[in-house]
Task: structure prediction
Amino acid sequence: MTNFLRSITKPTFQVNRHLSLIALTILLNLFAFSAFSQAANIDMVKWKAGKAAFKNNCASCHNPLVKGTGPALAGSLERWTAEGKHQGIDGKTWLYRWIKNNNEVRAAGNPRGLKIFGEYAGVAMNAFPSLTDADIDGILLYVDNSAMNTEAKVEPTAGGKTTEADAEFPTWILFVIIGLLIAMVFALNRLSGSLYRLTKESQGESVHPFIPFYKNRRIIILCGIVATVFFFYLLIQNATALGRQQGYQPEQPIKFSHALHAGKHQIDCQYCHSSASKSKHANIPSVSTCMNCHKVVQKGPVYGTEEIAKIYKYADYNIDTKVYGSNPKAVEWTRIHNLPDHVFFSHAQHVKAGGVKCQTCHGPVQEMEEVYQYAPLSMGWCINCHRQTEVNFDGNKYYSIYEKYHKAKAEGKMKGVTVEDIGGTECQKCHY
Amino acid sequence: MKETKIWKGLPGFENQIEEQANSNEFADSSVPALGGITESISTETNTGRRDFLKMLGFSLSAAALASCKMPIKKSIPYIFKPEDITPGMANYYASSYVDGGDYISVLVKTREGRPIMIEGNKQSSLTNGGTSSQAIASLLNLYNTARFAGPKKGGADISWASLDTDISSQLQNISTASGRIVILTGTIISPTTKAAIAGFKLKYPTAEHIQYDAISYDGILSANEKTFGLRAIPNYRFDQAELIVSVAADFLGTWISPLEYTAAYTAKRQVDPKNPTMSRHIQIESMFTLAGSNADKRIPVSVTEESQAVITLYNLIANKAGVASVENAGFSNKEIDSVANELWNARGKSMLLCGLNDANVQILVNGINNMLGNYNATILWDRPSYQKQGNDTAVANLVANMSGVKAILMAECNPVYSLANGVKFGAALKNTLSVYLGERRNETSENCKYIAPTHSWLESWNDAEPKAGIIGTTQPSISPLFDTRQYGESILKWSGNNDSYYDFMHAYWVSTILPSQTKYATITTLWDNTIQDGEIICNAPTIAVTPNFTTMSEASAKVKSTSGKKGNFQLKLYEKVSIGNGLSTDNPWLQEVPDPLSKVTWENYLVTGISDEKYFHNPDHKKFKVAEVTVGVNKFKLPVYCMPGIPEGVFAMSYGYGRTITANEEFQRGYNAYQLLGTDLSNITVTLTGEEVPLACTQIHHLLTHQGLGGMKTRHIIKETTLAEYKKNKESGNVIGEEVPRKAWIEEHLTTLYPGHTYNGHHWKMVIDLNSCTGCNACVVACNAENNVPVVGRDQVIRSREMHWLRIDKYYTGDENNPQVTFQPMMCQHCDNAPCENVCPVAATNHSTEGINQMAYNRCIGTRYCANNCPYKVRRFNWYDYAGNDSFDKKYYTNNYTDSLGMQEPLVRMVLNPDVTVRSRGVIEKCSMCTQRIQAGKLEAKKVGEPLKDGAIRTACQNACPANAIQFGDYNNKESIVADLIDHNERTFGVIEEIHTLPNVMYLTKIRNKTAIDEFNFTESLFD
Result:
């Protein structure tokens, strides 16, 4: 009987799996091809170097495509070149000088430089004397071809988000098929049973009276056991999950997009959450921090002026007169990552001393339109990480007191020293 | 060596095993199951079926409610983030705690703009980094619900503008009509405030400033005025004196400037193993004081004999010095003779102090010090102290002529409470323009027409000059919580000066402080640096004294005429170390700190000696006999507390109780001793009423002397030796068993088959010097504040349920009639072989890799096995959710729960340390060795990438200690102080370490500077 079931269901599964894999491959190929077709014309090494240089130097004020604190940079080489010669020097050279030290260019009276300066209300750009011409080549290449930045990352995300391949073949179809098959199994089972009885009866042999499966004692006991185990499994699962909020994604007073700020505009996490490396709290930025940029950036790409206007309301800032009122209000964000009172957690310990990436615990925030809780924030999850993560044992002189481990490492008895080895899984590291 | 008896409580008490059962907090079987809720449901003792169902239903619905939905929490960032505040990081501001004349240079720890802890300022030249229990507890005064929310007129709220108009115009009218205006304040040591008052007097020429100390020091001030022509207190150099003789002056507890004196006194008494010397201290007193309990020799005398002893000493020394003696007091004692000899032998290096507020006695004391050549040697006039300035004559004159006073402004005092005839004074306030410039509701404010509420010191700008030329600064560490105004600014306002107090102070500094110092050239550098440091030493002023010792006979005649022994019973009024003068009695931390000597909390009582024991004492330490006392026209009833070391016939009671107007009735217990001031205390009658009441006394709670394990006889809890013995043998006194030196005994006996702990990184240890600890309680209150230790209230203390993580155990040794005292701070000993760890069924308490016995509250299920198994009795069980559970109505707790700390008020909760969990009901808690500070210190070291330095982490108790008795550090760092003490100091021992607990908290033996004469004077025990 079971063999029979297996013989039917197994190929079906395989067919399904094959289908999804084929679809996935096709999709990935499509992406790869489009990326390749674009990349075919440019020097990828230079582009990557340019991207890195842009992120390090320019991204806090500029975006290739969107006006930020400074202008959108895509096409700037074209625009400067189009300007023609000034004082016998061509536009490209002026641009390179401008990027290195815009003060000098303005002092030299370059009309384009003065125009940009005027456009941005006299906010001077920083000087970058350390950038070489090759760096600038790369940056200019990157800003003109920044669209490649948006290549899709097909990483599975937590929180129950489905990948595209899954969306093509929804799981409910699978359940329907399985259901139908189980029904078929029962029908066939009944059929074969009846045929068996008929045969036996026709041969004149005595048969047991027919007992339907729902009255079968063995089946009832089996189901009872399964149900009990399942009940307790659910009970324990739900009890431990009480108070855990993985996937929690509350609505916030302002539709702030981390995908836009941290993802598209590449603003460093600690520009806003500046105390993450100093304090136990990674602060939520004050309204004044928002206003640093949004005095200039008055329109967003998704919601236009609607959401940014909310900041002005909280800050009591009049966008027309550019004057602050006397009645600002704090933004009441809904807290997503909640730890119980008896848990001590320090961001500085993890970010500064441990060198842990924000995304390790907070997930791909740079892709989140609305932030949700990525990690379970359960004790088991904390402990697991403490067991697996190695500390910066040789790089930080604080650990020099652990002479025994240093010796063991030197002798090759120990590969790396984990957080657990230095007491990172003890009660009073987090509970006091 | 003669066997020295050691005991707690009353002599012979340790033999009464059954009493220990009574003092066990877990013995009480009448604990309600649901914190009082069941009491409202059922009055039966047995839980019936219906109650069971009710409770089942309740818990089911509570569980269901809890599982419904997670509460939504808000995260509210700053609008404009202040530059110097990082959420989660503490900021420290140097400031000065000033209360009347008390001055302590401190650092105020703030989190997100809230002061949460007061630490000592290590840069202070006066206090050397210590704090007092009052300074730390003043945090709760900031968050006191009895504070005024704004100005008031006749009980109704008014605006500051109309208050100013009202008062200014009335003052003007009174001044024009030449009516008397009085500003009555406590001692003011702020030069700026004095300048403001001077401005006020210019504006209103009929105004007069009277300073009034509730506990008066007029005697010593007047005496100095007569003998030196200067109404001030000299600079006592406890770090210079080799012999200190104190007659009833509790200079370690309450006298003038106890913190400064403690720092200097203990510095001189810390014994260096290479060159063992220490000062010698003799105390002559009736009531057992903190100074007396630290003395090498204590001579108990009756109340009247205290002043007679001064006359006797005068004559004995005058004989030796060849100076004319005065008429004899008729009191002689061979002990006093030997004191005179010692003083004479130590002339120029000794110091005689006297705590009696009697100018004539003080004149004789000055005469003795003069004959001994102590002036300009141990008692200096270079920087006199201004910490007490009250003038009894002026106050008496004011009280007698209140009808002539047309306006009275009162600040930093509570005369209606602290005057003998306060009620009458209060009535007089109603007939004049009376303005109260205090912080909180009290007896005086209730009688005043206007209330102009002032800031807490934590909200104020100010300066203080405790000693000539030593200027401390106070800066605000929080914005004013209420609509209050610093009283100095109110006085400026009413004198027509519209400057803010800050501007006025700054201007005063430009004109006066800047020229009087040479450290800084400009006001900007002076101001910025001094505000940052908290203290500046200006040039010593030129103090001219004109010694005049010609009035000795006159003085002694006056003393004699008033001090003749009159009755069988005499009364001594004294200050308790934490409660002090009682103006801040409405403070739960101070109320719950046990008095160092009696260990009683929350109330006052009559203290008497044990020679009257059979009559007055109930030996079970649970119920105390109530006596009715008649002092002149005053009659009151108080329980009697017997204590060894107090002579027959002496009764003592403390100031500071019997308040009538406070935030909570809990603060109103006891009898107001101020009412007896001015009455003849040398002949009182005491009769027993037959009643018996309990006292919230912690003396016999949490005893280490378990009889089943041999009691005091075989357990080595405290160890002491004498300086002479120590000089001969560094290990003297540090013995286990039959006089076997500790090290040898341990090496021979403490072997084990089990592997010990290995500590690869840090190994935290603490060492406490019993010789330095004076028992002042600053560490206890510091621990309360740092670790959110709840206050449980009097009823719970009676049930042995006080929650203090750190307690100070007091042991008596020696002669039962005149014992010596050893204080021992006792907290979790963080044993490496911890008996608590292996009895916990859920492993909620276990050992860390750094030697700390850790306690996970969220894991604890409250079996209390650990507390029972702890030989040091340092684990505390949370019987209630003391920090306040919002979801239950307060009324359910009324039977057993006293909301003494008021932690259910959001205002009071601001004091909680956000780095430490607020423990809930049903879990055990105990000292964590300030693990939050260890974690923070390690993180800082990791952030900068450097090895942790010794001394970078300081526990709260260590930081608060004015005597520098507590050392904490990493034993694995062989250069640390603790490693040096443990490895190389022969005085180090662990408490009852013979049971092999391997404690990580070690102690240093107490050393007494005794002479052969002291040993000889041991009398035979009464109770053998």
